[in-house]
Design brief:
single chain, mainly alpha, Four Helix Bundle (Hemerythrin (Met), subunit A), 12 helices
Length: 308
Protein backbone atom coordinates (compact mmCIF):
# COMPACT_ATOMS: atom_id res chain seq x y z
CA UNK A 1 0.00 0.00 0.00
CA UNK A 2 1.37 3.42 -0.96
CA UNK A 3 1.89 6.19 1.58
CA UNK A 4 -1.13 8.14 0.33
CA UNK A 5 -3.40 5.08 0.27
CA UNK A 6 -2.47 4.26 3.85
CA UNK A 7 -2.81 7.91 4.83
CA UNK A 8 -6.32 8.32 3.43
CA UNK A 9 -7.39 5.08 5.13
CA UNK A 10 -6.39 6.65 8.46
CA UNK A 11 -8.79 9.59 8.02
CA UNK A 12 -12.44 10.06 8.82
CA UNK A 13 -14.71 10.23 5.74
CA UNK A 14 -13.51 13.04 3.49
CA UNK A 15 -17.01 14.51 3.23
CA UNK A 16 -16.60 15.81 6.82
CA UNK A 17 -12.82 16.34 7.04
CA UNK A 18 -11.53 19.91 6.77
CA UNK A 19 -9.43 20.37 3.60
CA UNK A 20 -6.82 22.31 5.59
CA UNK A 21 -6.43 19.28 7.85
CA UNK A 22 -6.41 16.76 4.99
CA UNK A 23 -3.73 18.53 2.96
CA UNK A 24 -1.72 20.51 5.54
CA UNK A 25 -2.03 19.32 9.16
CA UNK A 26 -2.69 15.61 8.85
CA UNK A 27 0.07 14.46 6.44
CA UNK A 28 2.92 15.36 8.85
CA UNK A 29 0.71 14.16 11.72
CA UNK A 30 0.36 10.80 9.99
CA UNK A 31 4.13 10.51 9.52
CA UNK A 32 4.61 11.25 13.22
CA UNK A 33 1.91 8.74 14.16
CA UNK A 34 3.68 6.04 12.11
CA UNK A 35 6.96 6.87 13.88
CA UNK A 36 5.29 6.69 17.30
CA UNK A 37 3.31 3.52 16.50
CA UNK A 38 5.92 1.02 17.82
CA UNK A 39 6.82 3.20 20.83
CA UNK A 40 5.12 3.38 24.25
CA UNK A 41 4.04 6.98 23.60
CA UNK A 42 0.26 7.14 24.06
CA UNK A 43 -2.21 9.28 22.09
CA UNK A 44 -3.06 11.10 25.34
CA UNK A 45 0.60 12.04 25.76
CA UNK A 46 0.57 13.47 22.23
CA UNK A 47 -2.50 15.50 23.24
CA UNK A 48 -0.55 16.90 26.20
CA UNK A 49 2.21 17.81 23.75
CA UNK A 50 -0.34 19.77 21.71
CA UNK A 51 -1.34 21.71 24.83
CA UNK A 52 2.29 22.47 25.70
CA UNK A 53 2.98 23.71 22.16
CA UNK A 54 -0.05 25.98 22.46
CA UNK A 55 1.23 27.45 25.74
CA UNK A 56 4.69 27.91 24.20
CA UNK A 57 3.05 29.79 21.29
CA UNK A 58 1.27 32.06 23.74
CA UNK A 59 4.54 32.77 25.54
CA UNK A 60 6.26 33.55 22.23
CA UNK A 61 3.50 36.02 21.29
CA UNK A 62 3.99 37.91 24.54
CA UNK A 63 7.79 37.84 24.33
CA UNK A 64 9.99 40.32 22.51
CA UNK A 65 12.87 38.27 21.10
CA UNK A 66 13.74 38.51 17.38
CA UNK A 67 11.26 36.68 15.14
CA UNK A 68 9.01 35.88 18.10
CA UNK A 69 5.85 36.04 15.98
CA UNK A 70 7.04 33.62 13.27
CA UNK A 71 8.16 31.31 16.09
CA UNK A 72 4.70 31.62 17.63
CA UNK A 73 3.10 30.81 14.26
CA UNK A 74 5.32 27.73 13.89
CA UNK A 75 4.40 26.55 17.41
CA UNK A 76 0.70 27.01 16.67
CA UNK A 77 1.12 24.93 13.52
CA UNK A 78 2.99 22.30 15.54
CA UNK A 79 0.18 22.24 18.10
CA UNK A 80 -2.34 21.64 15.29
CA UNK A 81 -0.23 18.79 13.88
CA UNK A 82 -0.03 17.14 17.30
CA UNK A 83 -3.78 17.67 17.72
CA UNK A 84 -4.31 15.66 14.53
CA UNK A 85 -1.64 13.09 15.40
CA UNK A 86 -3.27 11.88 18.63
CA UNK A 87 -6.42 10.70 16.86
CA UNK A 88 -4.52 9.15 13.96
CA UNK A 89 -2.23 7.28 16.36
CA UNK A 90 -5.26 6.00 18.28
CA UNK A 91 -6.90 4.81 15.05
CA UNK A 92 -3.69 3.09 13.88
CA UNK A 93 -3.55 1.24 17.21
CA UNK A 94 -7.32 0.68 17.18
CA UNK A 95 -7.35 2.19 20.68
CA UNK A 96 -9.75 5.11 20.24
CA UNK A 97 -11.67 5.84 23.42
CA UNK A 98 -14.35 8.16 24.70
CA UNK A 99 -11.90 9.59 27.23
CA UNK A 100 -9.30 10.22 24.52
CA UNK A 101 -11.82 12.19 22.47
CA UNK A 102 -12.86 14.07 25.60
CA UNK A 103 -9.25 14.96 26.43
CA UNK A 104 -8.70 16.03 22.83
CA UNK A 105 -11.72 18.34 23.04
CA UNK A 106 -10.49 19.81 26.32
CA UNK A 107 -7.07 20.37 24.73
CA UNK A 108 -8.67 22.23 21.82
CA UNK A 109 -10.46 24.50 24.30
CA UNK A 110 -7.30 25.22 26.29
CA UNK A 111 -5.13 25.87 23.22
CA UNK A 112 -7.76 28.07 21.57
CA UNK A 113 -8.07 30.24 24.71
CA UNK A 114 -4.29 30.73 24.84
CA UNK A 115 -3.83 31.40 21.11
CA UNK A 116 -6.92 33.57 20.67
CA UNK A 117 -5.92 35.50 23.78
CA UNK A 118 -2.49 36.11 22.25
CA UNK A 119 -4.03 37.17 18.94
CA UNK A 120 -6.31 39.61 20.76
CA UNK A 121 -3.31 41.08 22.56
CA UNK A 122 -1.60 41.75 19.21
CA UNK A 123 -4.68 43.52 17.88
CA UNK A 124 -5.23 45.65 20.98
CA UNK A 125 -1.55 46.58 21.04
CA UNK A 126 -1.96 48.06 17.54
CA UNK A 127 -5.21 49.93 18.14
CA UNK A 128 -5.02 51.36 21.66
CA UNK A 129 -5.24 55.10 20.98
CA UNK A 130 -7.48 57.09 21.22
CA UNK A 131 -9.58 55.56 23.99
CA UNK A 132 -12.79 55.32 21.92
CA UNK A 133 -10.91 53.40 19.24
CA UNK A 134 -9.54 51.00 21.85
CA UNK A 135 -13.05 50.39 23.21
CA UNK A 136 -14.40 49.80 19.69
CA UNK A 137 -11.54 47.37 19.00
CA UNK A 138 -12.30 45.47 22.21
CA UNK A 139 -15.98 45.12 21.27
CA UNK A 140 -15.18 43.93 17.74
CA UNK A 141 -12.49 41.53 18.96
CA UNK A 142 -14.72 39.98 21.63
CA UNK A 143 -17.54 39.64 19.09
CA UNK A 144 -15.19 37.88 16.68
CA UNK A 145 -13.96 35.51 19.39
CA UNK A 146 -17.49 34.59 20.46
CA UNK A 147 -18.81 34.06 16.94
CA UNK A 148 -15.72 32.07 15.95
CA UNK A 149 -16.37 29.76 18.91
CA UNK A 150 -19.92 29.32 17.56
CA UNK A 151 -18.44 28.44 14.15
CA UNK A 152 -16.19 25.65 15.45
CA UNK A 153 -18.77 24.34 17.94
CA UNK A 154 -21.50 24.05 15.32
CA UNK A 155 -19.16 22.49 12.76
CA UNK A 156 -18.21 19.87 15.36
CA UNK A 157 -21.87 19.28 16.19
CA UNK A 158 -23.10 18.86 12.64
CA UNK A 159 -20.03 16.85 11.63
CA UNK A 160 -20.95 14.34 14.35
CA UNK A 161 -24.60 14.36 13.28
CA UNK A 162 -23.57 13.79 9.67
CA UNK A 163 -21.31 10.87 10.65
CA UNK A 164 -23.93 9.29 12.88
CA UNK A 165 -26.60 9.59 10.17
CA UNK A 166 -24.56 8.52 7.12
CA UNK A 167 -21.81 6.13 8.29
CA UNK A 168 -22.48 2.86 10.13
CA UNK A 169 -19.07 2.72 11.86
CA UNK A 170 -18.98 6.24 13.30
CA UNK A 171 -20.79 7.13 16.52
CA UNK A 172 -18.77 10.14 17.67
CA UNK A 173 -20.21 12.59 20.13
CA UNK A 174 -22.32 11.68 23.15
CA UNK A 175 -25.30 13.15 24.96
CA UNK A 176 -24.66 15.30 28.03
CA UNK A 177 -26.73 12.97 30.23
CA UNK A 178 -24.56 9.99 29.19
CA UNK A 179 -21.36 11.95 29.91
CA UNK A 180 -22.65 13.05 33.33
CA UNK A 181 -23.50 9.44 34.21
CA UNK A 182 -20.00 8.33 33.19
CA UNK A 183 -18.48 11.07 35.34
CA UNK A 184 -20.51 10.14 38.42
CA UNK A 185 -19.55 6.47 38.02
CA UNK A 186 -15.83 7.34 37.87
CA UNK A 187 -15.72 10.38 40.11
CA UNK A 188 -14.19 8.72 43.17
CA UNK A 189 -11.30 7.32 41.13
CA UNK A 190 -10.34 10.49 39.26
CA UNK A 191 -7.31 12.65 39.94
CA UNK A 192 -7.62 16.43 40.28
CA UNK A 193 -6.29 16.84 36.74
CA UNK A 194 -8.88 14.47 35.28
CA UNK A 195 -11.66 16.20 37.19
CA UNK A 196 -10.51 19.48 35.63
CA UNK A 197 -10.61 17.86 32.18
CA UNK A 198 -14.15 16.70 32.88
CA UNK A 199 -15.26 20.18 33.93
CA UNK A 200 -13.82 21.72 30.75
CA UNK A 201 -15.61 19.02 28.77
CA UNK A 202 -18.92 19.76 30.51
CA UNK A 203 -18.62 23.50 29.86
CA UNK A 204 -18.12 22.73 26.16
CA UNK A 205 -20.98 20.21 25.99
CA UNK A 206 -23.47 22.43 27.82
CA UNK A 207 -22.61 25.39 25.66
CA UNK A 208 -22.93 23.26 22.53
CA UNK A 209 -26.30 21.83 23.63
CA UNK A 210 -27.75 25.25 24.44
CA UNK A 211 -26.55 26.84 21.21
CA UNK A 212 -27.69 23.91 19.04
CA UNK A 213 -31.23 24.34 20.38
CA UNK A 214 -31.21 27.91 19.07
CA UNK A 215 -29.30 27.21 15.85
CA UNK A 216 -31.14 24.10 14.65
CA UNK A 217 -33.76 22.76 17.08
CA UNK A 218 -34.76 19.96 14.68
CA UNK A 219 -31.40 18.16 14.74
CA UNK A 220 -32.07 16.47 18.10
CA UNK A 221 -35.44 15.17 16.89
CA UNK A 222 -33.72 13.92 13.76
CA UNK A 223 -31.27 11.78 15.75
CA UNK A 224 -34.09 10.49 17.94
CA UNK A 225 -36.03 9.48 14.82
CA UNK A 226 -33.05 7.56 13.44
CA UNK A 227 -31.07 6.15 16.40
CA UNK A 228 -29.53 3.36 14.31
CA UNK A 229 -27.91 3.53 10.89
CA UNK A 230 -29.86 2.46 7.85
CA UNK A 231 -29.18 3.09 4.19
CA UNK A 232 -32.48 4.83 3.45
CA UNK A 233 -32.07 7.42 6.19
CA UNK A 234 -28.40 7.91 5.30
CA UNK A 235 -29.26 8.69 1.69
CA UNK A 236 -32.00 11.10 2.75
CA UNK A 237 -29.81 13.00 5.18
CA UNK A 238 -26.86 13.15 2.79
CA UNK A 239 -29.14 14.55 0.07
CA UNK A 240 -30.32 17.44 2.21
CA UNK A 241 -27.35 18.13 4.50
CA UNK A 242 -24.50 17.42 2.05
CA UNK A 243 -24.34 20.94 0.50
CA UNK A 244 -24.20 22.61 3.93
CA UNK A 245 -21.54 20.16 5.15
CA UNK A 246 -19.29 21.09 2.23
CA UNK A 247 -19.36 24.69 3.46
CA UNK A 248 -19.02 23.73 7.14
CA UNK A 249 -15.85 21.73 6.56
CA UNK A 250 -14.26 24.26 4.23
CA UNK A 251 -14.03 27.26 6.55
CA UNK A 252 -15.63 26.76 9.96
CA UNK A 253 -13.69 24.01 11.74
CA UNK A 254 -11.04 24.23 14.43
CA UNK A 255 -8.29 23.37 11.93
CA UNK A 256 -9.20 26.30 9.68
CA UNK A 257 -9.33 28.68 12.65
CA UNK A 258 -5.95 27.59 14.00
CA UNK A 259 -4.24 27.64 10.59
CA UNK A 260 -5.52 31.17 9.96
CA UNK A 261 -4.25 32.28 13.36
CA UNK A 262 -0.86 30.63 12.80
CA UNK A 263 -0.31 32.40 9.47
CA UNK A 264 -1.72 35.78 10.53
CA UNK A 265 0.26 35.84 13.78
CA UNK A 266 3.46 34.82 11.99
CA UNK A 267 3.09 37.78 9.60
CA UNK A 268 1.60 40.13 12.23
CA UNK A 269 -1.66 40.65 10.31
CA UNK A 270 -3.99 39.20 12.93
CA UNK A 271 -6.24 42.25 12.74
CA UNK A 272 -7.05 41.52 9.08
CA UNK A 273 -7.72 37.85 9.80
CA UNK A 274 -10.11 38.64 12.66
CA UNK A 275 -11.89 41.19 10.47
CA UNK A 276 -12.26 38.51 7.77
CA UNK A 277 -13.86 36.17 10.29
CA UNK A 278 -16.08 38.90 11.73
CA UNK A 279 -17.46 40.16 8.43
CA UNK A 280 -17.23 37.48 5.75
CA UNK A 281 -17.46 34.24 7.74
CA UNK A 282 -20.26 35.56 9.94
CA UNK A 283 -22.17 36.60 6.82
CA UNK A 284 -21.90 33.02 5.54
CA UNK A 285 -22.57 31.52 8.96
CA UNK A 286 -25.76 33.45 9.71
CA UNK A 287 -26.82 34.26 6.16
CA UNK A 288 -26.38 30.81 4.58
CA UNK A 289 -25.44 28.03 7.00
CA UNK A 290 -28.02 28.61 9.69
CA UNK A 291 -31.07 28.64 7.35
CA UNK A 292 -29.55 25.90 5.16
CA UNK A 293 -28.89 23.58 8.12
CA UNK A 294 -32.34 24.19 9.58
CA UNK A 295 -33.95 23.50 6.22
CA UNK A 296 -31.88 20.35 5.71
CA UNK A 297 -32.75 18.94 9.14
CA UNK A 298 -36.44 19.74 8.76
CA UNK A 299 -36.73 18.23 5.28
CA UNK A 300 -34.72 15.15 6.21
CA UNK A 301 -36.86 14.55 9.30
CA UNK A 302 -40.08 14.92 7.31
CA UNK A 303 -38.91 12.39 4.74
CA UNK A 304 -37.48 9.96 7.28
CA UNK A 305 -40.68 9.74 9.34
CA UNK A 306 -42.92 9.55 6.28
CA UNK A 307 -43.90 6.08 5.02
CA UNK A 308 -41.21 4.56 2.79
Amino acid sequence: MSFWDAYFRSLKPLEVEEPIDVWVHRPPAYVLARILLPTPVSPNLVTVGSILAGFAAGAAILSNFPWHLPVAGALIFGSAVLDCCDGQLARLRKSSSVFGRMLDGAADSIVSVVIVGGASYLVLRKYHDPLWFLLLTIVLTVTTILTSSFHTTMYDQFKNVFLRMTHPSYREGEDLSVAEARFQAQRGQLSSFLKLVWQIYFVYMRGQRDYVEKFDPTSRRLLDASPEYNERNAAIYRKYAGPAMRVWRSFFGFGSLVFGLAVSIAFDVTDYYLLFRLLLLNAVFYGYLRPAQRRASRRALEEIISPA
